Amino acid sequence: MDITELVISIIEMMIDMAKMIAGAISDATAGIVPPDAVAPLGILILLVILKAGFDFTKKVIDILIIIFLFYVMIRIIPMILGMF
Predict the structure, then answer these.
(1) Mean pLDDT across the stretch 37-60?
(2) Mean pLDDT score of the chain, rounded to an integer?
(3) What angle do CA 62, 64, 67 make, to 5 degrees?
(4) Average pLDDT of 58-68?
């Protein structure tokens, strides 16, 4: 793999991540953000995260993981209690 293929694959990976973020933003906002603004907003958020640096990004991801775990626990606990 030469340098141009590496750069192209990195750019494609960033675009895929931006599309994933844009899809998540679109699902989360449920029509609040206009559809034309979702993709640029996703790219902007991705660039802000990259600008913030990996150390800060790790802290943000840790916080998001904790929030997601609480959310999953809140959703799972009623089903577990319903079994008994």
Answers:
(1) 67
(2) 71
(3) 110
(4) 73
Q: Which tokens hold the place of 56?
A: 């800060």
Q: b/e map of 39-75 (b: 16 or more CB within 10 Å)? A: bebbbeebeebeeeeeeeeeeeeeeeeeeeeeeeeee
pTM of the entire predicted model: 0.39
Chain centroid, CA 65 distance in Å: 11
Q: Residues, the chain, total?
A: 84
Cα distance between residue 59 and residue 6, in whole Å: 28
Alpha-carbon span 28 to 38, nearest angstrom: 11
